[in-house]
Amino acid sequence: MKITNYTEYALRTLMYINAQSKESLVTVEEVANFYGLPMNHLKKIFWKLNELGYINSVRGRNGGYHLDVNPQKVQLGDLIRKLENLELTSLVKNKVNAQFNHPCFLTMYVDEALSAFIEKMNQYTLEDLVESNLSIPQKTCL
């Protein structure tokens, strides 16, 4: 399965924020510069992660974002499910099932594969991602 750039950028954003000390605030610009990603695209991702409760924003001149969850409890499959549109097949499912008057096996197989993917990804946490990618530098707090 191929995840969208949006989801990959969101995962990398959370990895970066999690790699920082708990007292440190991270800005959109900082993550954009580190990964070489478009800042406008990242702003939408930060907004969504904040809305989902994974990060929290601190306003003001020295504001930024920090992790608002325990990274050991963030299962990657659940996170991907919230960020990806995995219900794409349901649009076709209703139309096809109505035409054939029985469940479409293709839809069932795709749903089964997606469920297996999510289940496998749920074996890993956000903490696992950071531990496996120690090349993210930690900022020093002033």
Beta-strand portion reads: 5-15%
Main beta-sheet strand count, sense and barrel state = 2 strands, antiparallel
Secondary structure: helix percent: 55-70%
| pLDDT averaged residue by residue | 84
Oligomer description: single chain
Q: Identify the CATH class.
A: Mainly Alpha
Which term fits the overall shape? elongated
Structural class call reads mainly alpha
CATH topology: Arc Repressor Mutant, subunit A
What would you say the CATH architecture is?
Orthogonal Bundle
- Count of extended strands: 2
Major beta sheet, strand line-up? 1-2
Superfamily (CATH H level) name = Winged helix-like DNA-binding domain superfamily/Winged helix DNA-binding domain
Describe the structure in your own words.
This is HTH-type transcriptional regulator NsrR. Helix content is 57%, strand content 6%. It has 142 residues and is mostly helical. The chain has one domain (5-132): Winged helix-like DNA-binding domain superfamily/Winged helix DNA-binding domain (Arc Repressor Mutant, subunit A), CATH 1.10.10. A two-stranded antiparallel sheet has the order 1-2.
Topology readout:
Layout: H1 5-19, H2 28-35, H3 39-51, E1 55-58, E2 64-67, H4 76-83, H5 88-100, H6 105-121, H7 126-132
Antiparallel strand pairs: 1-2
Helix pairs in contact: 1-3, 1-7, 2-3, 4-6
